[in-house]
Write a structure and sequence with these properties.
By secondary structure, the protein is of the alpha/beta class. It contains 15 helices and 13 strands. α12 links the parallel β11 and β12. It is elongated, with a radius of gyration of 22 Å. It folds into 2 domains: 147 residues, Rossmann fold; 214 residues, Glycerate kinase, domain 2, CATH 3.90.1510.10.
């Protein structure tokens, strides 16, 4: 029997590798020691934090660098390298998790460190860069990233602008002549998990600014500053810039998606799709009897293509007979769960209704869930048929 355990992180609780290990420990409790059971742990991500870790677990090599954090402080970040490809994670250099809850800085947080990681990948000889842009602290349109790669953003007096989205209100001129010329010979792919444009009511500032500490008046100011950035960049490099600002995904990571698309000529792809390729998920689920996936919250947004549903689709395409999900909270009906590709769903809140205790005890609870899945799924997988009924343990 082959079992693949391929969850995403449980946000605010456990990283994906810890989730996979806890589920595997529970499964081991009910597997006969003499039985031939092959368990393959494949921690997943959707292009945000955890993407580099997933690549490292799949055989990439870690390369460590000291770069500029979201507020200018030095931070240690890792990129993953293999065969001329680098996996760069914005969250490692410019992520919201790098700031304390009471230290958010929506107007001044910068993506500069992300540009420094891209430059490190170029220095390592990489000619393909996968850029995961989830979990940012900034709303600077990717201006900091571009500055680290040689672009000059100048005010009316010819002085370089300070970092941060708020400073873009004073932008007068952009000089692209210093942009690292190696980028022209490098394929850049942006892993996105949102389809927001850069500007407006569904743009980077309006939708994601409040999560980064922006008050209502700061949201308005940031959106206007990003609009100024688009206007000046359009005057510098043509009308295609304005089209890039409207592209789904341009608003990802406070507009870093826009800068990558407009200036670095990147292509945007769904984050889960890219990570699945990096870890070879399609090949690893082939001939599996059971796939276990999951994330912190399973809800209607999950059905739009978040990690568990993406894993389930890949597993179904490979003919896996049984696919189940473990989650912290399950908001799907049984019908919706089946539509998402799951034969069953286990939620930690079924074992511990108190959310705080569930989060704090996630590893222990996931081990219990792994045991329950093992008791239910072993005969189900051996039958290699899909049942329309969910087990009593599922919701």
């Amino acid at each position: 029997m082959r079992v693949i355990i391929a969850p995403d992180k449980f946000k605010g609780s456990l990283p994906a590798d810890a989730v996979a290990e806890a589920l595997a420990a529970g499964l081991a409790r009910v597997v006969d020691a003499e039985a031939e059971v092959d368990v393959d742990l494949v921690p997943m991500a959707d292009g945000g934090d955890g993407t580099v870790e997933a690549a490292l677990r799949a055989g990439h090599t870690a390369s460590r660098h000291t770069v500029t954090g979201p507020l200018g402080e030095p931070v240690e970040a890792v990129i993953a390298l293999r065969d001329g490809t680098a996996v760069v994670e914005l969250a490692a250099a410019s992520g919201l998790a790098l700031l304390p809850p009471d230290g958010l800085a929506p107007m001044s947080a910068s993506s500069r460190g992300t540009g420094e990681l891209i430059r490190a990948a170029l220095d390592a000889g990489c000619r393909r860069i996968v850029l995961g842009v989830g979990g940012s602290a900034c709303t600077d349109g990717g201006a900091g990233m571009l500055a680290a790669l040689g672009v000059q953003l100048l005010d009316a007096h010819g002085r370089s602008l300070p970092d941060g989205g708020g400073a873009l209100a004073g932008l007068d001129r952009i000089d692209l002549s210093g942009l690292d010329d190696r980028l022209g010979r490098t394929e850049i792919v942006v892993a996105v998990d949102v389809d927001n444009p850069l500007l407006g009511d569904t743009g980077a500032a309006a939708v994601f600014g409040p999560q980064k500490g922006a008050a209502p008046q700061q949201v308005v100011a940031l959106d206007a500053a990003l609009g100024r950035f688009v206007d000046v960049l359009t005057a510098t490099d043509g009308d295609r810039i304005r089209a890039a600002a409207l592209t789904p995904g341009a608003g990802a990571a406070g507009g870093v998606g826009f800068a990558a698309l407009a200036v670095l000529h990147a292509a945007a792809r769904p984050g889960l799709e890219l990570v699945a390729e990096l870890v070879g998920l399609a090949d690893r689920v082939r001939d599996a009897d059971l796939v276990i996936t999951g994330e912190g919250s399973l809800d209607l947004q999950s059905l739009a293509g978040k990690t568990p549903v993406g894993v389930a689709r890949i597993a179904r395409a490979a003919g896996v007979p049984v696919v189940v999900a473990a989650c912290g909270v399950n908001q799907l009906t049984r019908e919706q769960a089946h539509r998402g590709g799951f034969d069953a769903v286990w939620a930690l809140t079924d074992l511990e209704p108190d959310p705080a205790r569930s989060i704090a005890g996630a590893a222990r609870l996931l081990t219990e869930v792994g045991e329950q899945i093992g008791r239910w799924a072993t005969p189900a997988a051996s039958r290699a048929v899909l049942s329309p009924d969910l087990p009593k343990e599922s919701r």
